[in-house]
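Dear colleagues,

As part of the handover before I leave the project, I'm documenting each prediction I ran so the next person doesn't have to rerun anything. This entry is a single chain, and its sequence is reproduced below.
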Amino acid sequence: MKPKETLSEFYALHGQEHAKAGQFNVYRREDFTCSRQLNPVYRRDFYKISLIAEGTGVIHYADQSVKVEQPALTFMNPLIPYSWEPGSERQTGYFCIFTDDFVNGSLKNESLSQSALFKAGGNHVFFPDETSLKLVQATFEHMMHEVESGYSHKYELVRNYVQIIMHEAIKMQPSDREYPHANASERISSLFLELLDRQFSIDAPHQTIALKNANEFAAQLNIHTNHLNRALKETTGKTTTRLISERLVREAKSLLQFSHWNVSEIAYCLGFDYSSNFIVFFKRQTGESPNQFRSKIVSIS
């Protein structure tokens, strides 16, 4: 398995071998050659925000698929394995792609850091109303103009436009999905969830996660395990162990669908000493064995 799709490979796949280099670029979707189906790739090494103005299709993740039959705004980051299956020939809109060099502190402030752009879990597809759609379309046009300009601070301005799009997406999601840090428990929970997500940038079967249980996470955050459990229970309604298990299952499903690694290799990189322990864990969480899940995914596709 090729672990990551690079930016240059993405350009080549879409007939853009000589696309502009740089930390940020923005395009119209109709100007790119679109394959009938983007092959599943476990991860990419860049961020992507897309506005699907016209066109239908299905976005596939490891454990879910989202049907797009109306204008949609999508956020993808290097943590998210996904594929796009177009349902119509006509595909219009915009997308921007950027690297970690573009992502600075202003894009990771406390409010925006909770958005889908910087998370592996949560919502990644949003459906704007007519007013939001017009605003986002205009914002993409502004970004296209600035990228082509000779303005020396254009990337700072473009970051502001990206923030406008991110805020529009935050407004589209239910209010209970927003997490302002009003107290210490919410701050601890945010740090834990960020640390949990960072665990799963696994690109090769010889890699393994460093933190495997509540005690290890608490030590990393320099707090007592009981303190961490109380904070998470207060803010999420779930225990530390439960949150770790859910994230492990999501990653396991991604690896089973998007990689060709065998079950033993997946078990190792997810921190299980024995593949049998992983099989028991996965079946307890999902009701089926890893091989049953993989066979089902293959038969569906």
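The two ends are 18 Å apart (CA to CA). The first helix runs from residue 7 to 13.

All the best with the project,
I.
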